[in-house]
């Protein structure tokens, strides 16, 4: 069975944390592909948008082009109105055949807020999920219902062969917690560094740093930060 991971996010911009997570999960869980899914921003919110969807997409294209197993999905950008994750997973589930097992990747910060997602309990049964540790956030389990908690598989500290075996033996619809990779980089940090004219190469892939500089992205102090 093929294993495909879906990595949704704003990617404003994509950074070394995203790339390190995707690479580490490919080798840890033997994923066949990781598909980056940049989020749609509603027209009425576009004025407040930091980089446009076009720039966000272009930076993702630059960051993913050299990695054979990285894919880029336009499913959310092409939607007529803002899709929630539940809508996106419904569409993607229909697109992939039954011989593909889908995994949705999220960081520990997103997991902490999972109950604010539309139809969150349904979202957690539609695919498997991989929750990745992130500095400053704990991989908690006490905020979800007992039924969901029963589907959590804690792989913190596990070796790759154990993780793959566990994943292969488990029923679908599990939530795997992993600390196989922890990277202290956020998009907020990148935008701030860019707005202060600082060097970005330790934060984003080199072509993304060059793109941000060339197009003057994030050069004004951002609203709300
Ligand atoms: P911002 O700083 O603007 O909130 P971000 O760095 O969290 O952005 P997003 O594009 O919002 O980046 O993240 C997409 C997904 O990737 C989310 O599920 C988020 O939790 C996860 N993620 C982002 N950075 C990391 C990281 N360093 N380690 C683990 N997960 C991460």
UniProtKB/TrEMBL annotation:
Write the protein's name: Probable nicotinate-nucleotide adenylyltransferase
Keyword vocabulary terms for this entry? ATP-binding, NAD, Nucleotide-binding, Nucleotidyltransferase, Pyridine nucleotide biosynthesis, Transferase
Which source organism does the UniProt entry give?
Pyrinomonas methylaliphatogenes
UniProt entry tagged with the keyword Transport: no
Q: Which GO terms describe its molecular function?
A: ATP binding; nicotinate-nucleotide adenylyltransferase activity
Q: Gene name?
A: nadD
Q: What is the superkingdom listed in this entry's lineage?
A: Bacteria
User: What range(s) does the Cytidyltransferase-like domain occupy?
Assistant: 6-192
Family the UniProt entry places it in: Belongs to the NadD family.
Q: Could you say which EC number(s) this protein's record lists?
A: 2.7.7.18
Q: Catalytic activity, per the record? A: nicotinate beta-D-ribonucleotide + ATP + H(+) = deamido-NAD(+) + diphosphate
